[in-house]
Amino acid sequence: MIEINQLSKMYPGGKGIKDLSFEVKQGEIFGFLGPNGAGKTTTIRILMGFLRPDSGAAKIRGRDTWQERTGLKRIIGYLPGELHFFDRLSAQEILLLFIQMHGNHSKLKENYKKLIKRFDLDIRQPVWKMSKGMKQKLGLISAFMLNAEILLLDEPTSGLDPLMQKVFIDLVLEEKEKGTTVLMSSHQFSEIEKTCGRVGMIREGELLTVEDIAQLKQIKRQTFDIRTKNEEAAQYLRQSGLHILHEEGLSFRIETSGNLNVLWRVLAETQIEEFHQQPLELEETFMQYYH
Question: CA–CA separation, 1 vs 141, rounded Å?
């Protein structure tokens, strides 16, 4: 459905993308992972026909995204990484404007009413009064309501609270059931892990690899802070074979990767006073993978 072949687009100063090649199959949810400035947004803008590549090709359904940029927009739902709406219009006026720009008005109105309810968005407010999270909801509604064959989503959960992130994940999985093709860039490892079958990892404009999400999980490392109740329990932990990053008295920082069954088995046989899981930063995962 989406084909990218030796795609390059360079900006003054050396930033951009270099010889990217990957494809997204019909009905697949494909994650596009990378730190800020890696080239994710540039790639998506080329797919949208907003940028002309310096070399290489980007195609959707076999059609060049620059040469046929107008026609292809009829089958794409798009969420940009930076949202800009008409500030003086209300959310309702903006959504109705988008509906008027597409066909099948009655179906789209039905869709957007359902999405408004799911995202709990007050559509009477003018955009200039909206928070970042409310604008993000408006952008997601405008992308999902079109029943598009393809969704291009650039940092889709930016500014959303955990409840709305869950709503988003549910929507993406529903689109997968319908056979929609989704390319989604993100910093959020958790949302990629829950929705995508494959991921492409990009750094400094170059594609490092395309991996099945199951393989990527095997290299994901997690860190836990543990405090034992006594020295006997601490000694048991030392001899357990777990990877201890740091130790101070009865307190330990332990790192694991892949399957956590060994950790749970050791903890079940140890007297533990405190247990905390450290949040996993996506950039940390990238660095581990790069090494």
Answer: 23
Q: List the domains of the chain with CATH numbers.
A: 2-217 (3.40.50.300), 221-290 (3.30.70)
pLDDT of 291 reads: 60
For residues 80, 71, 207, 143, the Cα torsion angle rounded to the nearest 10 degrees is 30
Amino acid at 246: H
Q: Determine if the pTM surpasses 0.70.
A: yes
Which amino acid appears at position 26 of this protein? Q
**Is 119 in contact with 103 (CB distance < 8 Å)?**
no
Tell me 9's DSSP state: E
Start-to-end CA span in the chain (Å): 32
Residue written as token pair 């040469």: 67
With the C-alpha atoms ordered 201, 207, 209, 213, is the resulting torsion angle positive or negative? positive
Question: What is the spatial order of strands in the sheet that 29-33 belongs to?
Answer: 76-79, 150-154, 181-186, 29-33, 198-203, 206-212
**Within a 10 A sphere around the Cβ of 248, how many other Cβ atoms?**
8
Residue 226 has pLDDT above 60, yes or no: yes
